[in-house]
Specification:
Blueprint: E1 9-14, H1 27-43, E2 48-53, H2 55-58, E3 71-75, E4 95-101, H3 103-116, E5 121-129, H4 133-145, E6 149-151, H5 153-158, E7 167-170, E8 173-176, H6 195-198, E9 201-203
Parallel strand pairs: 1-2, 1-4, 2-3, 4-5, 5-6
Antiparallel strand pairs: 7-8, 7-9
Helix pairs in contact: 3-4
Length: about 210
């Protein structure tokens, strides 16, 4: 079974924009899960790419997802693959882990474009959103029929079946530990270290 390898993956965050996300069903939960993916990716050096659709109309990316050094692909087409230079921003041979909105519009068309371009794609079910749940679920089913792997944030975090559960990094020291549960990075609790060390802990998202 194929797992997500942090050394050959990129995290793609599609259109988390200020004038769009308030309309998304369960939008705050989608953003929280995107933040968890983003924090883990940055901590372990996994490349990250954002897209923005018609930023003048839909606004920029949510500030809570930005640190100031992100790469952003600007587009005017629903399928980011059709935007000039977008595919060149993706590392060759890397799998694509996708989060974003709306699931049935820009996420769907971009994912299908990536599949057409020969990329292996993972769609993170609880880190994508649409205005209506039926639109989201229908889009996910269509992506799955086209060979896209459907995962959840915790499936990505734990990399199911790797036998180690959660790995965490505190300060300058890396640790691999087995834990029975994991709260969000923003909860600042890692069951392996407890609240005293929690402010210095962040959960790994991609397989070591």
């Amino acid at each position: 079974m194929r797992t997500i390898d942090r050394d050959r993956s990129i995290l793609l965050l599609v259109d988390f924009q200020t004038r769009l996300m308030p309309s998304i069903e369960d939008g705050p939960a989608v953003v929280r899960n995107a933040r968890r993916l983003l924090d883990g990716a940055k901590l372990f050096g996994v490349p990250v790419l954002f897209t923005e659709q018609n930023a003048k109309g839909l606004g920029g990316t949510l500030l809570e997802l930005l640190s100031g050094s992100e790469k952003i692909a600007h587009k005017m087409t629903f399928d980011a693959c059709r935007a000039p230079g977008f595919l060149a921003m993706l590392p060759p041979g890397h799998d694509i882990v996708v989060s974003g909105s709306e699931t049935h519009v820009c996420v769907l068309q971009t994912v299908l474009g990536l599949v057409e371009a020969g990329r292996h794609v993972f769609i993170v079910r609880d880190a994508v959103g649409s205005r209506r749940s039926e639109s989201k679920e229908t889009a996910i089913r269509r992506m799955e029929r086209n060979g896209v792997e459907v995962v959840t944030t915790e499936m990505v975090i734990f990399v199911a079946g790797d036998g180690r559960g959660c790995a965490a990094r505190c300060g300058d020291k890396s640790h691999s530990v087995t834990v029975s549960c994991l709260t969000s990075v923003h909860g600042n609790l890692c069951a392996a270290y407890g609240p005293r060390s929690a402010s210095r802990c962040a959960a790994i998202v991609f397989k070591s």
